[in-house]
Amino acid sequence: MSLPSLNLTRLDGSPEDLLDYQGSVLLIVNVASQCGFTPQYKDLEDLYRKYKEVGLVVMGFPCNQFGRQEPGSNADIGEFCASKFNVSFPMFEKCDVNGTGAHPLFIHLKSVAPGILGTEAVKWNFTKFLVNREGEVVGRFGSADGVAKIVPQIRQLLGQ
Q: What domains does the chain contain, in order, with CATH numbers?
């Protein structure tokens, strides 16, 4: 099942459609600024810079549902990401990934790529979903799964 057309909003309020990323390999991550996994921003940025020219897009979706570790406004999040990690990959407005108010993108991702034992809920910050160029979700990785674990599959999807 490929990704649907969905409205997205960047941290700065500018609108996009998920289909704007059609044909790219996507690594979609729910992020947080005050989490033990927050240093993963550095590896995600390094990954993006290394492979963006061949079709990889890292997409960050801040979420405050896990330990209230993303309490700031969209502007605060943007400033933090820029000043601490020099993030240049697309960052989107803060959203929920679980529950009745979950962003439609995460509802879709969880339904086609359930977690361990078939559970759909995202368990914590920095859960990652890997999407191929055809828009199919081909992997789900937990918070503790660093970029190094995902790189071989990304390289394969990029034809590297």
A: 7-158 (3.40.30.10)
- CA pair distance 31, 143, nearest whole angstrom: 10
Mapped onto helix, strand or coil, the DSSP state of residue 8 is strand
Annotated active-site residue in 35, 63, 81, 95: 35
Task: Mark whether 95 is an active-site residue.
Answer: no
Mean pLDDT by 10 residues, the chain (160 residues): 86 94 96 92 97 98 94 94 96 96 93 72 93 94 93 94
The residues facing 31 across adjacent strands are 62
What is the model's pTM? 0.94
* CA-CA-CA-CA torsion sign (21, 83, 150, 121): negative
